[in-house]
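Exercise 7b. Backbone tokens:
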């Protein structure tokens, strides 16, 4: 399984670092508001890893980090070996994940291969599968990944993309229990852009987003992103 996209220069994906972003194919979620529809639906042309690796060698000393995102990177059978190879070049490594494969996260942490993890928290437990576009989700895996990250000893963040059709005060209050005691949560502004799986969804306005932030701030440090 090969990566299906590369952003060769990013100032947005790893806080205060210059990064290269690698997009993995396929995902076990179908979030209607996902911006990476082409990756999720596995419709992009694969990029041989050797090509990516040779490019990264030319960026040693010029960029700080490599971000593995998707799709869902933990679905890639070769992910751990790919990260080992990239880490050996001296880059910081960030993983973006939906948290459905806690054992992979645990192994990467055990080997010291990660410097930063970002995990999407979709919604309250009751609305999780619906928000992720799935029939059902193993919430125990989601909760295990949350706990692994909270106890990882490295930088991490949780993030929720706010969508009018999926989030309200009730679901946000219930979602707070999933992230209670975590280090950081970002509430992200949804933008109906090209590549979104479902067209016609709407952003949560700034007033309501601030209300959600206040609710969540009772249990976790919460900031708005993109507003």
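Sequence design result:
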């Amino acid at each position: 399984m090969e990566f299906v996209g590369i952003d060769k220069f990013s100032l947005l994906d790893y806080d205060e670092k210059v990064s290269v972003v690698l997009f993995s194919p396929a995902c076990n979620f179908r979030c209607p508001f996902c911006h990476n529809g082409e990756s999720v639906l596995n419709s992009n042309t694969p990029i041989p890893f050797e090509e990516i690796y040779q490019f990264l060698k030319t960026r040693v000393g010029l960029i700080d980090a490599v971000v593995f995102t998707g799709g869902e990177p933990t679905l890639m059978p070769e992910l751990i070996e790919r990260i080992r190879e990239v880490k050996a070049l001296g880059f910081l490594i960030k993983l973006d994940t939906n948290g459905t494969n806690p054992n992979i996260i645990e192994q990467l942490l055990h080997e010291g291969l990660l410097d930063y993890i970002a995990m999407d928290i979709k919604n309250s437990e009751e609305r999780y599968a619906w928000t992720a576009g799935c029939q059902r989700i193993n919430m125990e895996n989601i909760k295990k990944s949350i706990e692994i990250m909270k106890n990882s000893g490295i930088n991490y963040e949780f993030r929720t993309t706010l969508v009018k059709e999926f989030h309200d005060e009730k679901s946000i209050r219930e979602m707070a229990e999933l992230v209670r005691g975590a280090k950081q949560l970002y509430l992200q502004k949804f933008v109906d852009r090209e590549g979104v799986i479902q067209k016609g969804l709407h952003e949560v306005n700034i007033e309501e987003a601030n209300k959600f932030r206040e609710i969540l701030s009772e249990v976790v440090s919460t900031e708005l992103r993109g507003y």
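Instructor comment: Residues 139-150 form the longest helix (12 residues). Helices lie at 37-40, 49-57, 79-88, 102-110, 128-131, 139-150, 169-179, 206-216.
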